[in-house]
Design a protein that fits this description.
By secondary structure, the chain is mostly helical. It has two helices and no strands. The chain is globular.
């Protein structure tokens, strides 16, 4: 019951963050945005990658 309530409360937040991430990707012309905390990447060239966290936080109005 508690877990269901937690999912219910967090769902609007997850939905908003997903939309903002999608908007940031479109606005900046990104082809892919990976969640490296959850994903499994064998290799990536850090010099050619962009950390979009600052862009997403700014769009959400966070510091």
């Amino acid at each position: 019951q508690l877990q269901n309530r937690q999912v219910e409360l967090f769902q609007p937040i997850y939905t908003r963050v997903d939309k903002v991430i999608s908007d940031v990707g479109k606005e900046n012309g990104f082809l892919y945005i990976f969640d490296v905390a959850k994903g499994f990447l064998l290799y990536f060239d850090e010099s050619k990658s962009t950390d979009v966290l600052a862009l997403v936080k700014a769009k959400l109005g966070l510091k």
